[in-house]
Amino acid sequence: DIVLTQSPALAVSLGQRATISCRASQSVSISRYNLMHWYQQKPGQQPKLLIYRASNLASGIPARFSGSGSGTDFTLTINPVQADDIATYYCQQSRESTWTFGGGTKLELK
Amino acid sequence: QVQLQQSGAELVKPGSSVKISCKASGYTFTSYDMHWIKQQPGNGLEWIGWIYPGNGNTKYNQKFNGKATLTADKSSSTAYMQLSSLTSEDSAVYFCARSPTMADYFDYWGQGVMVTVSS
């Protein structure tokens, strides 16, 4: 299975930029498709899709969220961070038939 | 609007089975894959498998072969997951999540069902 590695936590100040990374144990890109997706989860809630296929903003998601990357290295950027963004963020790959998630990055206030 | 409404929390005994449900509304149930994802307390997310309600095709994470069985009832737009031979390792929140067919991400999620395995 493809293993996705995320830093456990990231501390940011409100109004600043947050950069959350996800590294895959092997490439998750096929041709022009980067099969990496990002979700936000708040305590006691279900995850919410933010970004699909590395850089596409999901419906209803604010433009302060963006995604980039290809191959094995991907980034979710939140700029500027707002109080409502304090949550845990997960990456997910669909390159292989067994889809896997990263361990999550908890975004905290500095 | 798309909604995935899951059944209520379950407290079950070790060695038993449990069947949880996910009722879909607001879209054509038979045109989207339905996935199930496990989240143990304080832990990350683990993909269990999917079912395509249109024809009943399924695919499982090898780790959950023999543990989870996915079914769907087109008449009620409801997906089900049965978990068997339960142990404490099966105590978790279980989510259903929709995936557009031929896509590879989850665009809508149910609220989750807490399953607690305890004697």
Could you explain the architecture of this structure?
- The complex is a heterodimer of chains A (110) and B (119).
- Chain A is built from no helices and 13 strands.
- Chain A has strands spanning 4-5, 9-12, 18-24, 29-30, 33-34, 36-41, 48-52, 56-57, 65-70, 73-78, 88-93, 100-101, 105-109.
- In chain B, strands 2, 4, 5, 6, 9, 10 and 11 form a seven-stranded mixed beta sheet that branches. In chain B, strands 1-3-8-7 form a four-stranded antiparallel beta sheet, with no helix packed on it.
- Chain B is mainly beta and 119 residues long.
- In chain B, 41% of the residues are buried.
- Chain B has strands spanning 3-6, 10-12, 18-25, 32-39, 45-52, 57-60, 68-73, 78-83, 92-100, 108-109, 113-117.
- Chain B contains no helices and eleven strands.
- Chain B starts with a strand and ends with a strand.
- The A-B interface holds A 35, 37, 39, 45-49, 52-53, 58-59, 90, 92, 94, 97-104 and B 44-47, 59, 61-62, 95, 97, 103-112.
What sort of overall outline of chain B do the alpha carbons produce when their principal axes are compared? globular
List unreliable stretches of 5+ residues of chain B: none
**Cα separation of the termini of chain A:** 35 Å
Overall mean confidence score, pLDDT of chain A: 96
Mean pLDDT of chain B: 95
Features:
heterodimer, A: mainly beta, four-stranded antiparallel β-sheet, B: 119 residues, mainly beta, 11 strands, globular
